[in-house]
Specification:
With 128 residues, this protein is of the alpha/beta class. It has one domain: Rossmann fold. 41% of the residues lie in helices and 23% in strands. A five-stranded parallel beta sheet has the order 3-2-1-4-5, sandwiched between helices. α2 links the parallel β2 and β3. α3 packs parallel to α4. The longest helix is centred in the first third of the chain and has 17 residues.
Amino acid sequence: MFDTVLFPIDNSRQTMETAAVALALAQRHGSRLVVLSVVEDEEGAMHDPAAVAQLLDQARHSFEQAGVACEVIERQGKPAFVIGDVADEINADVIVMGTRGLALEGEEQPSTAARVIQLAPCPVLVVP
């Protein structure tokens, strides 16, 4: 049912909890698992490339120890838009991501998860 699972990650604690759901889904369906890291381009923002590489290596290692090979993609840009674009590029069947930062009623800026739900070319499994 899910041939390709896209799992966008960040350095939040919730990412590792959500990883368990992405892993279980990939194992259950024998899916191709693609891990995506998006570094947001912000004026004056300092990003540590070593930290991003370490996060991706840790995710890859965790999945491979569980018997699921994964691909890793690194991109720059606005996370919600990049996630949607990559999902389209790889023909993802589902995006698995956490609710961290999910916007509340009346907030001006929607969260990345809320924007991905609006923009995604496929279903989005949002893990609480």
